[in-house]
Every structure is written in structure tokens, then in C-alpha cells.
Specification:
Helix content is about 50%, strand content about 10%. By secondary structure, the chain is of the alpha/beta class. α12 links the parallel β5 and β6.
Length: about 350
Amino acid sequence: MELDEIFKAIPDPDPKAAAQARRRWDSLAKPLGGLGLLEEQIVRIAALTGSEEVVLDNRALLVLCADNGVTAQGVSQCDAGVTASVARSLAAGSSTVCHMAAAAHCRVIPVDMGILNFPPVEGILRRRIANGTGDITLAPALTREECIAAIETGIALVHECKRDGVQLLATGEMGIGNTTTTSAVTAVLLNLPAPAVTGRGAGLSRSALERKIAVVESAIRRSCPDPDDPIDVLSQVGGLDLAGLCGVFLGGALYRIPVIIDGAISAAAALCALRLCPNAGSAMLASHVSSEPSGRLLLDALGLKAPICAEMHAGEGTGAVAAIPLLDLALAVYHSGHTFSHLGIPAYIPQQ
């Protein structure tokens, strides 16, 4: 299907299923809304899937990996070779997020969207659109056609997960330089100055942060992306990981699989998906408030609140995976049958 056809095929959330899930929460022997955002997330999942019987046993983390030409401008402590090294670590099950995912009973699926000069590696899905991206200070990151292909690849990845019975997706990424591209995308979409949305990423010095801000400003001046056209924004100053993640959020809404947003990078991709198709928001679940300056700004733009405020900025999907046990805990109560009637006590009544 063409993207426009996909947007039209994304269903509305089911208000009946949402109401049923909310009634179930209110029947349980606890204060009304006592589990806060955790209750709300289960209700959102019910609305997305069309059923109050929320089951999230089969879960996977998609980590989209790609290199960014903007690293040539000295915006990171390390060079592009680290992207390949971490991708191999993801495949070997030894990266930071792999240890967290094992504890959360979540499968990790690394995907090569465009790692620079990267050969096929067992355990890494090969979905290469290009061999890295252009330096956004000098040229577009991607052609429009490459950007659309990356978005379509993200949608297709969700379709494959749906076929394999996945019931919950988490999003992650790996790509040296992608906090710079994310800052540029965010500045354009939110119409904010670069200093307001640009952080230290993996740990830049003050002088290096100033250089990074100048790079973001230079890239935006060069390209003048159209803020009303997320594909133009992604192709001009984004990257393959961002475009692919945009597709993952669209695919989640199309195939009715909830997708957990990680930090600022995946939140920027989620905002692109929301701007392309408002119904894409039905699949999105917030995980944590990134310590990057754009973290809370992006969640506000998405209309979402995150249950975790832990000042995380590790990437790889670590924040998204950290939210999975919270959903498990919520579902333990949701499915408990521990109702007011079971205890023989009157239920709470909503008050004005």
C-alpha cells in the first residue's frame, strides 16, 4: 500500500473497549484511579486492540541501527564505528538493553537500517536503505524516496512482528550522531531554537555542546525543512533510524500493537508519525522522561505522560524496556479479580 492508503487504513481507537477496561479498573478493590498512568495505559491498549482482555505476554524490542554523516562535524565523543560495535553487541545479547530485556522477558531485534560499511551479521535483520546518511550541514540526510522507503520498512517490521504473535513492541535505536539529527528534527517540528532542544547526548563537554548547537542551526538554515511535511523534515535533517521508527509507530497503529516510546529520539519519530496520521497516536505509550532537553517537550507535543522520571539517556531502548515490568505489575492487578463485590464491600463512587 502507498503511505496515504496506510494512513486511511489505520483504525480509530475503540471507545467501547476503553470503557470496558475502565469499568474493570473501577470494579477492583482499590482507590479509583489509584494506579494512575498505569491504569490509563492499559485502557489505551484496550482501545487500540479493541478488547478489554489485555494480554502482553509476547513482547519484543526493535532497535533500529544506522549511521549519520553529521558525525563528521564533531558532534560526538566517538566515531561512527561505535554504531557497528554496539549493533554486534545487540546481536550477541551483551549490550546494556539486552540485560534489561532479559529481565523483562523481552526479545531484542536489532535491525541494520544503514550502518556504515556494515556486512551481514547473524542475529541482525538486514533492512538497509542506504549506507549511512549525508552530512545534514552540507546536504539532505536522505532523498525523499529513501525516507519513504525507511518509513515503509518500519511498518513492515511491525507486520512481521504481528505475524510472529508479538503483542507489545518497544522502540530503540543505535546510531552515533542521532541526538544531533533528533535535535534538528525537534527544533523544526516544535518551532523552537536549537539550544532549547539540544543536549549533551552521550556526554559532551560544554564547548562540544556549543559546537553541536551550531551544527543543528547550520543544518536547519541550509535545508529550511517544511514543518508541515514530516517526510521533508526527516529527509532533510533526520536519519534512517528516525524514519524507520516513524514507520514502527504507524505500523503499531495499523496492526493494533501497542508501541512503547523510548527517549527523545523515538519520541521525535513518534511525533513525525502523529503529524502524518493523527490516529497513529493510538498505539503510542510513553515510558520515561528523557534527561535530554527535548524529552519532556516532545512528550507534551504528543499529549502523553510518562510513568518513569529517572533521568535516563542511555538509548538502545533502555527506557522503553524499563516500562515493561510496570505494565506487567498493572496487569497483575487488572486480571486479579480482586473486586469490591468479591470482598463484600461497597465500591467507590466517583465524586464531582
